[in-house]
Amino acid sequence: MSAVVAADRGARDLGPVRAHHALGISTGVFADARGAWPDLVEAALGVSRDVVELSAMSYNELPGLLSYLDGRTLPFRYVSVHAPVKGDRVYNVLSQLATLPLWVRSIVTHPDAIDSLPAHGQLTHRLVLENMDDRKTYGRTADELAELFAELPAAGFCLDVAHAWSVDPTMSSAHELLDAFRSRLRHVHVSSLRDGRHVTLRRADEELFTDVLARCRDVPWILEAPLREKADF
Amino acid sequence: MTGADGVKRLEEAGGTQFEQIGAARRLTERRLAERRQQLAALPPGQTAVVLCGSWGRRELTSSSDDDFMILVETPETSLRPSLEEVASALEIVAPAADGAFGEHVHLAHLRDRIGRDGDDNANLTRRMLVVLESVAISGSDVHNRARRELLTRYLEANVRDYRPPRFLLNDLVRYWRTIAVDFESKMRERKGEGWGLRNAKLRLSRKALFAGGLLPVLECHRYQTNEMLDYLDQRMSIPPLDRLADAFLAYHAVDVGIRAFTAYDEFLAILDDPDLRVGLSSVKRGGANTSPIFSRVAELGSVFQESLLSLLFDDATLYRLAREYLVF
């Protein structure tokens, strides 16, 4: 969003991320409540009634999420589920993910968590691949992800701006990712990184990410760490 | 001002191809040529045979309807050809007498009955289709003059330099809202038959039609009053998707535009697939949340709508115009 528009909305002092029309949060932010899905959803609703990512990053979190969502609808307009990528893998995780209600619009996974391309293909359009940070050896750049998308033609793309920054602090790599996969873009993960962990978006990073985020202005942005308070500006 | 190549230029800017849109356009042009040939033997007159809907949007798919109207330019014009003659020449069934296309359409009615009781649902629909999404298969000069006359009438009402023409804008918004309201009414009357397909069209093709009219009207903020008619006439003479593509390009929203058109491209692919189309048509409101094909179309509709909203509200110029003109 342009600075002028932000100013028109009286949002200039909040920064472009806080002013984004479809801003939500990952429930992974609320680590203390992990596994307590009603509490996690309530906390996410406190941030946004439009957008959420239900984070089941560990394999043992998925059954609880599936049980919680069974027969239920949530008030959000855009619901993403972050598929398990940590812990001991279970053999039937994909068939479990396939049972997520159809109003779950995206199922995000990491390239290095994909052990079978054909099996992941069963998630069709709901499968979303996220770019990786510099600690990983695969799935970080446009070239690396292109190999996967060639095998998963229906899959979408989640741009993690902090991961892209870790690979290339000039943000050229982030632009290359958007050049290559803009038509697949479903949503954006927003945060800063410190020691490989997602932390509150720093003001300097927000400014650095502005041009990249402007190319993603029509899709939901999902916070992977709480936003700073106004007093922190 | 740009021509009817907006989609192509957006493809070039994004380094991509909208294959289904291209295929639909090629099919439309081929079928238009056939249709024109079929009507060539009919007696000439001061009428135009005009195809509407997906024909006018150049988005023909394998199951598209043949909605046509016979546009009559002047009251004294003979009502030839008849609906039956045209239908017979085109080898299709004549339109139902109680629909928007079931009788000859008099330009005078479209032009002189804008608003109030005389402007019934059929008249509003016909007028908007002539302006926004129609193509002539005979009498193209009559059709072109009719579109220009209608635009002229809209521009006679208190238009100011560098301001979007409110009369036209209000009628356009009224048309879009009428479509949305009538959708509910039709579904109630038809007990939900065809709900999925009609809902999908509301989310995508009808929205393209509305936005494709809305953006040129807002763009009139660049023109003096004496320039607006030529501008609008040229814009409305090209397909709505080209108008939209031009807007995404003009406002430096290539990424957003690519996502909008990628979604639309897949929507056309679904419409063109007989099995998917039938499956979509069979979806009832109560089953929408459990239908994979409807969920997919709803997702495409969301992407398309969010892209259009981003175009309107995330650019400083369009945001100010939308704020000033779209609510009141």
Description:
- The complex is a heterodimer of chains A (233) and B (328).
- Chain A is an alpha/beta fold.
- Chain A has one domain (3-223): TIM Barrel.
- Chain A has ten helices and ten strands.
- In chain A, strands 1-2-3-4-5-6-7-10 form an eight-stranded parallel barrel. In chain A, strands 8-9 form a two-stranded antiparallel sheet.
- In chain A, helix 3 links the parallel strand 1 (23-26) and strand 2.
- The relative contact order of chain A is 0.14.
- Chain B has 328 residues and is mainly alpha-helical.
- Chain B is built from 15 helices and four strands.
- Chain B has helices at 6-14, 19-39, 83-90, 107-112, 121-132, 140-155, 166-189, 195-203, 205-219, 225-236, 240-250, 254-272, 274-281, 292-313, 316-325, and strands at 47-52, 68-72, 105-106, 134-138.
- Chain B has a four-stranded mixed sheet with strand order 3-2-1-4.
- In chain B, helix 1 (6-14) packs across helix 11 (240-250), helix 2 (19-39) crosses helix 12 (254-272) and helix 6 (140-155) packs antiparallel against helix 10.
- The longest helix of chain B is centred in the middle third of the chain and has 24 residues, at 166-189.
- Chain B is globular.
- Classes of the chains: A alpha/beta (233), B mainly alpha (328).
Helix/strand layout:
The complex is a heterodimer of chains A (233) and B (328).
Chain A: H1 3-8, H2 15-19, E1 23-26, H3 37-45, E2 51-55, H4 62-69, E3 78-82, H5 93-97, E4 106-109, H6 117-120, E5 127-130, H7 142-151, E6 156-160, H8 161-167, H9 172-181, E7 185-190, E8 192-194, E9 197-199, H10 203-214, E10 221-223
Parallel strand pairs in A: 1-2, 1-10, 2-3, 3-4, 4-5, 5-6, 6-7, 7-10
Antiparallel strand pairs in A: 8-9
Chain B: H1 6-14, H2 19-39, E1 47-52, E2 68-72, H3 83-90, E3 105-106, H4 107-112, H5 121-132, E4 134-138, H6 140-155, H7 166-189, H8 195-203, H9 205-219, H10 225-236, H11 240-250, H12 254-272, H13 274-281, H14 292-313, H15 316-325
Parallel strand pairs in B: 2-3
Antiparallel strand pairs in B: 1-2, 1-4
Helix pairs in contact in B: 1-11, 1-12, 2-12, 5-7, 6-10, 7-8, 7-9, 8-13, 9-11, 11-12, 12-14
